[in-house]
Design a protein that fits this description.
alpha+beta, Heat Shock Protein 90, two-stranded antiparallel sheet, globular
């Protein structure tokens, strides 16, 4: 959710005629790959370097914590996954999360999808 909120914020600052966030989910035998791409203004290289170092920053102005990417990275790392970021100024950003499907990481949960499309873990 943090990454979606960040994309929404970026698009609100964008001059694109058709703001768009695309989410793709790919499942392989051993992992799930979630890609979130926006067509916003992109992330400056110096800001991208700070994000990749794990430094919590905010481009949202005074009083805003800017912890979206930091929180997402922490959660992904706790799950022994990876998060990567690609960006081009004027062309948006793509965040890719890779999570391994492993009993060693997640145990052996039962997943049940309810009729209302919510997912519950037991």
């Amino acid at each position: 959710m943090n990454l979606i909120a960040n994309a929404s914020d970026a698009l609100s600052k964008s001059e694109t005629d058709q703001p768009k966030v695309t989410i793709k989910i790919i499942e392989t035998d051993d992992k799930a790959i979630i890609s979130l791409q926006d067509n916003g203004p992109g992330i400056k290289s110096e800001v991208l370097a700070l994000i990749r170092k794990g430094i919590k920053i905010s481009t949202k102005g005074k009083g805003r914590k800017g912890s979206g990417v930091s929180a997402a990275t922490k959660i992904v790392n706790q799950c022994k996954g990876t998060i990567s970021i690609e960006s081009e100024i004027g062309a948006g950003a793509t965040f890719t999360v890779e999570l391994f499907k492993s009993k060693e990481v997640f145990g052996d949960p039962k997943i049940e999808i309810q009729l209302d499309d919510s997912i519950e873990f037991f």
